[in-house]
Design a protein that fits this description.
By secondary structure, this protein is an alpha/beta fold. It has helices spanning 20-36, 43-55, 61-70, 74-86, 88-94, 104-113, 128-134, 147-150, 157-167, 181-190, 222-234, and strands spanning 7-10, 117-120, 174-178, 194-198, 217-219. It has a 5-stranded parallel β-sheet with strand order 2-1-3-4-5, sandwiched between helices. Helix 10 links the parallel strand 3 (174-178) and strand 4 (194-198). Helix 2 packs across helix 3 and helix 3 (61-70) runs antiparallel to helix 4 (74-86). Residues 240-246 have low confidence and may be disordered.
């Protein structure tokens, strides 16, 4: 192992939990709520609102979509958001609580056996940790905290700093694996970390707004992720010229 890379941080939603069923059910629920409240939103109009939210780097794309379609009606926003929250348990039950990405558990076990330090860096409720424990995946992570247990949320880079601190490494000694340019790649690059984007789900078409926000690599599955991690770890270390915090 290269002495420069000691740790790998993982976002949960996207890289570990594909969220495919969840995202579809959320979209269906939002559209159903608008129809219920007399707003006839087409599939194409909904797709336009979704695209706008992703391109705008909206921290919560669901809230942004609802706001866009509501056209400034706070009463409508409140009604649709309330109904979305009321159906959380139904969605979690329908998808089994977690949609584990194919090949990811095997890869994480392999990295752990090779003495990489693994940590979470995710905007997730604290309850997600119990689900990961039941799946047999949490035991491989040395740093097991998420936003719901720390109070920090990405894109705040302090969440990644907490993860690195919990693993006892500097950010430049870690790789960040996430699916969002705004929430994962940008804070990682700000800290001088290597950043890998797993192109997946709602944010698959999100684009960097400058070269600074460009991930070090794009991958599409666990196999590509493993290959890329090994290539990046084998790469000779170099000084980071981009970190705002150096």
């Amino acid at each position: 192992m290269s002495p420069s890379i000691k740790a790998i941080l993982f976002d949960v939603g996207g890289p570990l939990d594909t969220c495919v069923i969840m995202d579809q059910m959320i979209d269906d629920q939002i559209m159903s709520s608008f129809h219920k409240h007399g707003v006839d939103i087409s599939v194409d109009e909904y797709a336009d609102a979704n695209r706008w939210a992703i391109e705008a780097f909206a921290p919560n794309p669901y809230q942004a979509i609802i706001w866009r379609i509501s056209k400034g009606s706070q009463e409508l926003v409140s009604a649709v958001e309330t109904e979305l929250l009321q159906t959380v348990d139904h969605r979690n039950d329908a998808r089994g609580g977690f949609e584990l990405r194919e090949g990811m558990l095997k890869l994480i076990e392999k990295l752990w056996n090779e003495n990489f330090l693994l940590g979470l860096a995710a905007n997730q409720p604290a309850g997600s940790l119990k689900i990961m424990e039941d799946l047999g995946i949490l035991k491989y992570f040395k740093y097991k905290e998420v936003s719901g247990s720390t109070g920090l949320r990405k894109p705040d880079p302090r969440l990644l700093l907490e993860s690195c601190g919990g693993l006892g490494v500097n950010p430049q000694e870690a790789i960040m694996v996430g699916d969002r340019i705004d929430n994962d790649i940008v804070p990682a690059k700000t800290l001088g970390m290597i950043a890998i984007r797993l192109v997946s789900g709602r944010h698959a078409n999100q684009q960097a707004r400058s070269g600074y926000e460009q991930p070090d690599a794009d991958v599409h599955d666990a196999r590509e992720l493993e290959q890329t991690i090994r290539q990046l770890v084998a790469r000779p270390p170099k000084a980071s010229a981009n970190s705002y915090l150096e």
